[in-house]
Design a protein that fits this description.
mainly alpha, about 170 residues, about 0% strand
Length: about 170
């Protein structure tokens, strides 16, 4: 029983330390970059899987990007996934038709969707970065206004004279 109790104690300590680390990590300013990278990798993953699935569902036609690009001749599924991820990434972030230009109609529409998703992701990332940049620049102004608003609430609560309120604000 003592051993079990020690295990519970160890588990509690590890959980507490993990939560402290997670809290510190979430307060780190660089977490924004990590979150953006995870979102982009998620988009690339789904785009790569979708493009490969379209070729797979048509039994890999001869004019498919997978056959023309030699993806079907690769040995492992990992290598095929890597080729698909490269194709999806080049479409999304290089704003191009990819490693192998699409010939089939459904692949063309998938490429258009991929390029649009990449453009939207780039625009959203740029806008979010600029919002952070401008927000950090005006942080002191927001802090000052917050303190003035707190002062105004305090003065209203105690019903101070207008002359005294002006004196306190100017101080």
């Amino acid at each position: 029983r003592l051993v079990r109790l020690m295990r519970v104690s160890l588990l509690t300590r590890i959980t507490g330390e993990s939560l402290e680390l997670l809290t510190a990590l979430l307060q780190w300013d660089g977490i924004w970059y990590v979150r953006q990278l995870v979102v982009l990798l998620f988009l690339v993953h789904w785009n790569a899987c979708l493009q490969y699935f379209v070729a797979l569902s048509n039994d890999f036609p001869v004019e498919s990007w997978t056959v023309r690009g030699g993806v079907q001749e690769l040995d492992s599924m990992g290598e095929r996934y890597s080729a698909s991820a490269l194709h999806a990434t080049s479409q999304m972030f290089a704003v191009s038709v990819g490693v192998v230009p699409p010939v089939r109609s459904e692949e063309r529409w998938l490429a258009v969707g991929s390029i649009l998703a990449g453009v939207v992701a780039f625009a959203a990332g740029t806008a979010s970065f600029m919002r952070q940049l401008v927000g950090a620049r005006h942080a002191s102004v927001r802090a000052y206004r917050g303190k003035i608003e707190t002062l105004n609430q305090w003065m209203r609560h105690y019903r101070l004279e207008p002359e005294l309120r002006l004196k306190l604000r100017n101080y």
